[in-house]
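pinging the channel bc i need a second pair of eyes. not urgent but kinda urgent?? the chain im working w is below, pasted from the shared doc
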Amino acid sequence: MAVLRAHGIEAPLPDGFEGRIFVRPTSGAERAHAVAQFSTVALPADVGDFGGGLVTLMRENDIFATLFEYEPESSGTALFARRGIPRALTADDFLPYVLRRGLVGQSGSQWFFTESGRPFTFYVVLGSHARRPELVPRVNELLAQLAVSPAVGPVTGPVAAGGPWN
């Protein structure tokens, strides 16, 4: 099992998944935060943080997920009140209208939470709403091993980790 580690995120990849952990380049006074992407489809270099450019390529058995970090000031707000990474999603947690870009047949779920003092969202797209009872256990396998460490300091510059390219 390949294990990705970067920016205080550790993600052992279940069979059939690839992934990466990175920080997008910033400009000016922007602050960069970690993004971790996981997919059963090859991840193009230019995929958007929430799957733009990839979800249209998904087949019915495919999964895309992202763990997206927000500004530290978001911790403690109502949106991020849930403590801890969600570990056991169910088929009922996935709905077609949760998707950022609704594609016929697909299904999605999004969870906002704080882990190790860091605010995140975990956003998932399933290639098939009808096949979610088969696909959600694979998402849970990914979530079961996902770990986040407390932030150490500001993140600077673009960095990537994971996958066979590193």
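so The chain has one domain: 3-161. and Confidence is low (pLDDT under 50) at residues 156-166. — does that match what u expected or am i reading it wrong
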